[in-house]
Amino acid sequence: MTTTHGAGEDAAAAGRALAARMGVPFVPRGGHGLAALLSREGAEAALVFGPQRLSLVFYRDGRREEFFFHPGTALLRIKNILAGKPDQMIRAMALRSGDTVLDCTLGLGADALVASFVAGPQGRVVGVEKVAPLAAVVEYGLRHYVEELLLTAAMRRIEVVVADHYDYLLQLPAASFDVVYFDPFFRVPVKGAAQVAPLRAVGERAPLEEETVRAALRVARRRVVLKERRGSAEFARLGFREIYGGRHAHVAYGVMEK
Ligand SMILES: C[S@@+](CC[C@H](N)C(=O)[O-])C[C@H]1O[C@@H](n2cnc3c(N)ncnc32)[C@H](O)[C@@H]1O
């Protein structure tokens, strides 16, 4: 962890404290370029603490990639929901206000945010992410990003857990969440989904295991939902029969009811 160029003492102190909580080394920026700092420290990526946000920065094929939390696509989906348009994920989850959702693949938190908005203040959304630096960036954003009131509240309500979802599911009591959700990286990426490419570079790409789906079914009170490419063989392999999704959409949602 380091800070942005020219960050003041306060940012350095906050970055240092966050690094200590996460158990990662803090390295003062000291006027260095990030590529030089990474190679000096022998690090693959840096968490960069700035006045506005926490980013994860790394280099891939010589190109700088930067992740930070932004509610972008979730915002658009929430606007559509407010305008009365159906959201396929919410339909597949049959999600209502007051429901509880375990999002087993938090990623950049977009699906969790839409779910949190719909579940509302009486509901609960817990997001599980295996890659700790990614979880740190998203959790920081969910705690600090400011949007209009209801959206900000929906962000703040999401609880972030750093864990492998299988291990975490095994620890949970039976029937403890209404919906358990998976959005693993698609086995065959959608062409032109450029925004997912850098996430694929840092995220956990192992396929979903059948035993994980079984563990999810125990934890779910109502249903387990899997997002994959439309027509993906993953649905049949993992036992999802009921499929939701627009006829022309790239993605589909498999549903397994209790
Ligand atoms: C396609 S992304 C999810 C995107 C997310 N739905 C969103 O709206 O931003 C998949 C995420 O799941 C995480 N993941 C994959 N396998 C996991 C596991 N076994 N336990 C926890 N997280 C996992 C990956 O690291 C990645 O961040």
Automatic annotation (TrEMBL):
Residue stretches spanning the membrane: none
Which GO terms fall under molecular function for this chain's record?
A: rRNA (guanine-N2-)-methyltransferase activity
For this entry, the protein name equals Putative SAM-dependent methyltransferase
Task: Give yes or no: UniProt keyword Transferase.
Answer: yes
Ordered alphabetically, the record's keywords are: Methyltransferase, Transferase
The family database entries (InterPro entries) matched by this protein are listed as: 16SrRNA_methylTrfase_J (IPR007536), SAM-dependent_MTases_sf (IPR029063)
SUPFAM superfamilies, per database record: S-adenosyl-L-methionine-dependent methyltransferases
Short name of any one Pfam family annotated for the protein: SAM_MT
